[in-house]
């Protein structure tokens, strides 16, 4: 059976991930993501009403025109998890394919939200939920099967899809860290990865998330970030002014820890911002996270402002608002607080806790710098980087190669500079550039069989 891989997006950047695998005449697409920084760099750009081709020209979504060079039919579109760089282009591209979107239940809920916001295109694709540990047959040959393996990442319900073919398994390894003690959900299923590496024809190809491939050691567990956060919040328990926290609104485990520790130090947590309300509300409705009954979640600008007014009237010392804006996004809540545009007034000595790292990208770095300066000018004390990454570092990459023993590896989710650490590591493990280690860019076809 012929096996071909199309590296469509996310091979020159962290963002707009998209890869297609053709097994005979059956094609499966993994991820359809958005490069948010290409959108945010334009002030007030609303993508909901924009055409795909304009977004492709901006570099915001994958250029999927190479799909016409693949001879076969798309049988499934499989986003690995709900981050926008993996699902953010589904609303713009999926309607071109007569295939269902197959994903874990939480990811499907987030895809639904994306499709509901879309104004330009009507996507008729079926949305199919599949849990980690389950399989589905692909096409009519009876020879190709899709499996989801549970992984741990900075969003719940993340999986790595595996396409089983007569030539061996294709393991699509975006995005994960190796967490054996996650705060929500099951540990990464390394046992299954080791089995896949040894059963049948073994692993033909492994496509790997190289976000942190230039970093030594191993990525810490979410448990470590949780203890760090506990340490910081307990240390300001006696402070009688304002404490505000921010994190990734999609990072349900972190939001849950923030809510818990706010209660521990005698403050009422409240989630503010549209995306905070959406992600946490969805996770709670689906039973992934339990929040206290009296936890307020407010998304609309008006209800947020009313909440801020209530906090100012009743006393800042009784509340801990968890807000959006950890990357200093100009329109996010925390940045607006820094500019003095909300009813919440920061005083000298008030604490702002960033439970997030800065996404290493010049736009983010600049915006975050500006937000911290603005907050500092209001007198806020900044606690930054209370965070662990959701991506493997070098020792995790080594363990994955050891578990899967793939014949071919393709580094992804980075640019050329970002791939270098992975090329070193894989070369030391006996892979050879151009032979079985394929460093590539967007828009390439790699024929493996
Ligand atoms: Zn991710």
Rg is: 22 Å
Poorly predicted segments: none
> What order do the strands of the largest sheet run in, or round the barrel if closed?
7-8-9-10-11-18
Strand content bin: 15-25%
Q: In one word, what is the shape?
A: globular
- Averaged pLDDT: 96
Structural class: alpha/beta
DSSP summary, beta strand count:
19
The helix content, as a percent range, equals 25-40%
Could you tell me how far the N terminus lies from the C terminus, measured between alpha carbons in angstroms?
A: 7 Å
Q: What is the compact description of this entry?
A:
Zn(2+) 2 binds at residues 85-86, 175, 413. With 449 residues, the chain is an alpha/beta fold.
How would you describe the overall organization of this protein?
The chain is α/β, with parallel strands linked by helices and 449 residues long. It has helices spanning 36-40, 52-57, 84-87, 90-93, 105-117, 190-198, 222-235, 252-264, 274-285, 301-314, 333-338, 362-377, 394-404, 416-428, and strands at residues 3-9, 18-23, 26-30, 73-78, 101-103, 127-129, 135-138, 144-150, 159-165, 168-173, 203-209, 243-246, 268-272, 296-298, 319-323, 351-354, 381-383, 408-412, 444-447. Strands 7-8-9-10-11-18 form a 6-stranded mixed β-sheet, covered by helices on one side. Helix 6 crosses helix 13 and helix 7 packs parallel to helix 8 (252-264). It is globular, with a radius of gyration of 22 Å. The structure holds zinc ion. Residues 81, 83, 153, 175, 390 line the site of zinc ion. Zinc ion binds at residues 81, 83, 153, 175, 390. Its EC number is 3.1.-.-. Homodimer. Substrate binds at residues 387-391. Zn(2+) 1 binds at residues 81, 83, 153, 175.
């Amino acid at each position: 059976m012929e096996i071909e891989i199309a590296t469509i997006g996310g091979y020159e950047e962290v963002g707009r991930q998209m890869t297609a695998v053709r097994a005979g005449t059956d094609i499966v697409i993994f991820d359809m993501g958005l490069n948010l920084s290409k959108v945010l760099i334009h002030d007030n750009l609303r993508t909901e009403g924009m055409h795909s081709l304009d977004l492709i020209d901006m570099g915001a979504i994958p250029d999927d025109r190479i799909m016409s060079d693949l001879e076969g039919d798309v049988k499934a579109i499989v986003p690995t998890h709900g981050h926008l760089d993996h699902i953010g282009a589904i609303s713009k591209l999926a309607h071109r394919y007569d295939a269902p979107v197959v994903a874990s239940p939480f990811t499907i809920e987030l895809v639904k939200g994306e499709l509901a916001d879309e104004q330009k295109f009507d996507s008729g694709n079926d949305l199919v939920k599949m849990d980690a540990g389950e399989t589905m047959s692909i096409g009519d040959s009876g020879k190709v099967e899709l499996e989801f393996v549970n992984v741990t990442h900075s969003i719940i319900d993340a999986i790595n899809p595996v396409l089983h073919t007569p030539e061996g398994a294709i393991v699509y390894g975006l995005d994960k860290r190796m967490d054996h003690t996650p705060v929500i959900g099951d540990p990464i299923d390394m046992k299954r990865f080791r089995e896949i590496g040894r059963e049948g024809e073994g692993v033909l190809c492994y496509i790997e998330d190289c976000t942190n491939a230039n970093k030594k050691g191993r990525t810490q567990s979410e448990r470590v970030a949780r203890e760090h956060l506990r340490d910081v919040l307990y240390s300001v328990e006696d402070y009688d002014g304002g404490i505000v926290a921010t994190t990734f609104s999609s990072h349900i485990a972190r939001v849950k820890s923030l809510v818990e520790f706010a209660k521990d130090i005698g403050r009422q947590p409240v989630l503010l911002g549209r995306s905070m309300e959406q992600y946490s509300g969805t996770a709670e409705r689906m039973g992934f996270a339990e929040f206290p009954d009296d936890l307020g979640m407010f998304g609309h600008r008006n209800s947020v402002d009313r909440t801020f007014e209530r906090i100012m009237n009743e006393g800042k010392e009784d509340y801990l608002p968890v807000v959006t804006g950890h990357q200093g996004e100009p329109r996010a809540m925390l940045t607006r607080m820094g500019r003095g545009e909300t009813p919440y007034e920061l005083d000298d000595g008030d604490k702002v806790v960033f439970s997030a790292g800065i996404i290493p990208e010049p736009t983010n770095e600049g915006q975050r710098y500006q937000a911290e300066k603005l907050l500092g000018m209001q007198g806020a004390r900044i606690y930054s980087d209370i965070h662990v990454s959701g991506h493997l570092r070098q020792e995790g990459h080594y363990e994955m190669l050891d578990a899967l023993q793939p014949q071919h590896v393709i580094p992804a989710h980075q640019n050329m500079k970002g791939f270098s650490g992975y090329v070193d590591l894989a070369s030391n493990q006996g892979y050879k550039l151009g032979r079985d280690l394929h460093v590539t860019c967007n828009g390439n076809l790699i024929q493996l069989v």
